[in-house]
Amino acid sequence: MSTDTALRPDTDPDTHARREARLPWIAGRAPARPAPGAAVHNVSAATAALLGLVALGALIHEPVLIPPLAASAALVHCAPALPLAQPRSVVVGHLIGAAAGYAVAAFAPHGSAWAAAVAAGIALALNTLARTPHSPACATAVVIVLQAPAPARFVPLLFGSTVLLVLTAYAASRIRRAAPKYPAYWW
């Protein structure tokens, strides 16, 4: 090692370790930013999927886009390898969240924030037991308790919307050659 390199603290391997020791509250470093092309692809594909849900809702005169589906779109398009983003977790997770929401709503006063919190906890527990981790599904349970949508209309729309999100993520991952292939597994 030359003396020039030895004097520069950014090239000294011990400098990083000393810095980490002084800052123990830093658990790690953020992953590298995606390439600009990948970021644009992910955002445009997720936006297109969400616009598709809005268009579907306009066609059938029903609100199809709910906040948890936007969170699901972000997961499947921007973090396609995570277990949270896999088709089983997205589709089954939201259905379990809906079931938890409707079950709690049957016993709680309409619009109760306390009941919504319980429904989210139950949805999380059931999704964990079913091995379908999907955090937006907990929000689906909350939406159901707070908004009380009619199950005969809401559940089929929720199912169709989650399938549409999965299929658009699948298609988007095949369009861009360098994109990670989605899904990592189907079931």
TrEMBL record:
Pfam family for this entry, one: TM_HPP
Location of the HPP transmembrane region domain: 36-176
Keyword match Ion transport: no
Residue spans crossing the bilayer: 39-60, 97-126, 154-172
Biased composition (Basic and acidic residues): 7-20
Domain of life: Bacteria
Region (Disordered) residue spans: 1-20
Keyword entries, A-Z: Membrane, Transmembrane, Transmembrane helix
Keyword Iron among UniProt keywords: no
PANTHER family for the chain: TRANSMEMBRANE PROTEIN DDB_G0269096-RELATED
The protein's name in its UniProt record: HPP family protein
Organism encoding this protein: Streptomyces sp. R44
Origin organism lineage: Bacteria, Bacillati, Actinomycetota, Actinomycetes, Kitasatosporales
